[in-house]
Write a structure and sequence with these properties.
Layout (H helix, E strand, L loop, with lengths): L2 H4 L5 H15 L4 H51 L4 H30 L5 H29 L9 H48 L4 H30 L9 H4 L2 H11 L7 E9 L1 H8 L1 H16 L7 E6 L2 E6 L4 H15 L3 E3 L2 E3 L2 E9 L6 H17 L4 E3 L4 H20 L4 E9 L5 E12 L3 E3 L1 H11 L2 H21 L5 E5 L2 H4 L4 H12 L6 E6 H6 L1 H14 L2 E7 L6 H6 L4 E4 L1 H4 L6 H16 L3 E5 L4 H10 L3 E3 L9 H19 L1
Parallel strand pairs: 6-7, 9-11, 11-12, 12-13, 13-14, 14-15, 15-16
Antiparallel strand pairs: 1-3, 1-6, 2-3, 4-5, 8-9, 8-16, 9-10
Helix pairs in contact: 2-3, 2-6, 2-7, 3-4, 3-6, 3-7, 4-5, 5-6, 6-7, 10-11, 14-15, 16-18, 18-20
Length: 673
Amino acid sequence: MSGSTRRIAGFPLGVRTLLIAGYTGIFLPLGALGLFALMTLGAANAHTHEIYQHRLVAIITLGQTVENLDQMRQMVVQDVLAAGTPALVRDQHRAIAVQLATLDAAIDRTVARYALTSVSPRQHDVLRRWPAAVRGFRAARGALLQQYAGGWAHRGPAPHALTVTLNDRLNTVLDLVYALMGDEQREGQVLDQTQQSTYRQTAVVLVGGLVLIALFSVSLAIALTRSVARLYDDAAARARHDALTGLPNRALLHDRPAQAVHAAGGAGVTSASTALLLLDLDRFKEINDTLGHHVGDALLQQVGPRISGALRATDTVARLGGDEFAVVLRDADAAGAVVVAGALRAALEEPFVVEGQALTVGVSIGVALCPEHGTDAATLLQHADVAMYVAKRGQLGHAVYDPSLDGHDTADLALVAELRQALAADGLVLHYQPKVHVQTGQICGVEALVRWPHPARGLIPPDRFIGLAEQTGLIVPLTRWVLETALRQSRTWRDAGLDLEMAVNLSLRNLRDPQLRDTVAELLARYAVPPRRVCLELTESMVMADVEGTQASLAQLAALGVRLAIDDFGTGYSSLAYLSRLPVNELKIDRSFVQHAAGTATDATIVASTIGLGHSLGMSIVTEGVEDAETWALLGRLGSDVAQGYFFSRPLPAHELEGWVSRASLDARRASA
């Protein structure tokens, strides 16, 4: 018996009846009457086959509907974890509502199809539990949407707990689908035994004399059996494999950890462990948004083979949806999983060639171990997801699940959610720190620095939320807000006769944003600010992290006419060769060297050497961190062009800076008189 025949998960009654018809016809007195009876039974069986075929289609449709619902659930969970805007989450939930309606229709069709045929007690129990499972998922979805619509008020369950409940309720629905399919597989095994018995009886009857009719019956039965097997195999493969990549999907991944635990226990192995790795591609969204979804799909089709090439034949690779993949490693402990995670990162960081373009992506990997961190796919996926976000947020590449990480995630995610709301409600402010010309003592520019006056937490320092914004991608809209606010203020000051250069900080993620150049050009035109009066700053360590990519992005910005500065110079170990290749106008010497330059010969030498280096490359020098008159006087002797620090002023709101400029100008006039 072929493997396909043994795997049939449907049509047992129809095929069985057709085979019995074959050998029953042999006992008819006349061959013609036997053939007539066979044709009559065949017509009846065709109707039965049609019923069972509809039943199979109903099951597969139901499974695919639940898979679509699961993917929608992933989007909601990701948006909650990334603290998406209320409108975005509501859109995702509207999409889930559509999928729920589709699910209801699929359940009705399935129940109707089963009503036409006999069902086992287990199938009856599964069908009975459908409504309660779906109501439970709806209730979890409604609770999550209600809490989010309320802005996560400080009452009721936390968003993290609600997303866990949402996962649990949907897993209950998925379990019912898999139970129904599993029962069909057991029916297939009964069919296999019946067919074996039928073939033996047919062989005996053939000796009786009506060989032609018997052969015809058996041939027809075998042909129909194989046709049904192929139909089911194709449909089952579609239901349990990803259509785009051909990899197993979440449904097939569902039972692999449990199988691994059972196999280890059955072999008497107690120390064996299975590792689940959750992979999330970095920068994939940028490729999709910039080059189109067809390029993104082509890239995803190459990711699967790249992952498989770094694994053993016994390991499992699955695509969970979007840019998320999962790997199940048999007999792997934490150390082994970390080694494999490193190999996967190396494999995926090699360029992908799509339509003649070399595309690079990164990957963040979370690791959960079975049975240490859970024994079912849902729990392991949840814990691997926590570890993956820790790796992504800390730019670690990979991380192993630690139960203590869950609480920190909730606090950080809540802060990101509040930051997103503050951006939408214009709840941030800019303060401006003066930059003073060393030789004349006159203010020549300001640096725009973002501040967050939180209504409940007070003033939140930038180092508390800028890192989170970079890790979640929120840094892109945050930087645009800072740029637009700073240029609008620059326009206001210019209209009032105050011409100051405006400096704004960029992050590495900003430089990788393909829309950065157009954003800057658009805002310069909107507020009619001369490009030469705008300076964009990026840190030395940022430049050294991706020299080639940074050089290309800076060249685009320089073409607009804006000035470019390297901030915190002296801490990133850049070389003269790299500096000479970058279109940079200004070096800002890090405050760690400037603060002690007046009292430490080594720091004074470093500052003097850096000033000479910058001037030799045609750059102006800004020294930040000036906090006393001695340092100010030393910088004048060493030839610094511009100075910045608390000796002159702390960062000030716009209206306070205007008063500071007026007082500074008055003091200068009195001193000259």
